[in-house]
């Protein structure tokens, strides 16, 4: 009995010492857990999400956005301008069939030929499938207004005609419209709405639009009816 009593006393003593320590340890763990949770909450409150970030403003001048079509158009314009400058240089030096420096068509009549004499070959004329006369020859040859009037169209691209000028005139009391097509890019000397005189230089012979070589496509309409251009010139030019 004495041995049992001693063992019980020792067990009670051990329990008395261990329980406060265990309680203290649990308390410390709980305290530690609470502290970590609070830290996490504190950190979460200081988090900056991407949607709250403010990007620096971007100005149009800070970058260049060009589409492939815009690039191609720009290159075509630059190439056309270069060709026009080269061909104009040839014309001004007399390379346009010996007529490069001739800025006014010869003659004094109400109607003039649109190209210098001897500077062209008649390749085609008015037919069921062709609306005017094709006068071929060296690129850069000056083109003249066949009659005085007002420029209705002056453009670098007119359907299959390429660089084109159209002039509305009155000749012998009749309304006459003359068309000059396939000119060199950048060679036009007149603008829409401008008044021109017979024989005034309006551009240079080229091969723009639907063309297989340098030539002037020349059309004449009298009272809005197509007529054979060369016959009309022979009957009216002076």
Account of the 3D structure:
- The relative contact order is 0.13.
- This protein is 32% helix and 23% strand.
- Mean pLDDT is 77; it is low at 21-34, 43-63 and 90-101.
- The protein is elongated and about 140 Å long.
- It has 238 residues and is α+β, with helices and mostly antiparallel strands.
- Strands 1, 2, 4, 5, 6, 7, 9 and 10 form an eight-stranded antiparallel sheet that branches.
Summarize the model shown.
The chain is α+β, with helices and mostly antiparallel strands and 238 residues long. It has helices at residues 2-45, 68-92, 229-236, and strands at residues 121-124, 133-136, 142-144, 149-155, 163-171, 174-183, 195-196, 201-204, 215-222, 225-227.
Using only CA atoms, what is the Rg?
46 Å
Tally of strands? 10
> How many H/I helical runs?
3
End-to-end CA span? 157 Å
Proportion of helical residues: 25-40%
Shape: elongated
CATH fold-level assignment of the domain at 80-236: Glucose Permease (Domain IIA)
What about the largest sheet? 8 strands, antiparallel
Mean pLDDT: 77
Structural class: alpha+beta
State the low-pLDDT regions, or none: 21-34, 43-63, 90-101
What is the level-2 CATH architecture name of the domain at 80-236? Distorted Sandwich
What's the CATH H-level homologous superfamily of the domain at 80-236?
Glucose Permease (Domain IIA)
Order of helices and strands: HHEEEEEEEEEEH
CATH C-level label of the domain at 80-236: Mainly Beta
């Amino acid at each position: 009995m004495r041995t049992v009593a001693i063992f019980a006393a020792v067990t009670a003593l051990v329990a008395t010492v261990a329980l406060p320590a265990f309680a203290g340890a649990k308390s410390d763990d709980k305290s530690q857990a609470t502290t970590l949770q609070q830290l996490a909450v504190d950190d979460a409150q200081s988090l900056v999400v991407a949607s709250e970030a403010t990007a620096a403003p971007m100005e149009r001048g800070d970058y260049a956005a060009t589409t492939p079509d815009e690039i191609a158009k720009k290159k075509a314009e630059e190439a056309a301008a270069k060709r026009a400058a080269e061909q104009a240089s040839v014309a001004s030096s007399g390379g346009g069939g010996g007529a490069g420096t001739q800025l006014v068509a010869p003659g004094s009549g109400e109607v003039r030929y649109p190209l210098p004499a001897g500077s062209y070959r008649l390749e085609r004329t008015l037919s069921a499938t062709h609306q005017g006369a094709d006068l071929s020859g060296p690129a850069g040859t000056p083109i003249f207004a066949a009659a005085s009037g007002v420029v209705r169209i002056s453009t670098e691209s007119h359907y299959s005609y390429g660089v084109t000028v159209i002039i509305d005139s009155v000749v012998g009391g009749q309304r006459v419209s003359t068309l000059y097509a396939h000119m060199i890019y950048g060679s036009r000397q007149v603008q829409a709405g401008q008044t021109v005189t017979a024989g005034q230089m309006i551009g240079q012979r080229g091969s723009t639009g639907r063309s297989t070589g340098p030539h002037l496509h020349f059309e004449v309409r009298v009272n809005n009816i197509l007529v054979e251009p060369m016959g009309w010139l022979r009957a009216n030019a002076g």
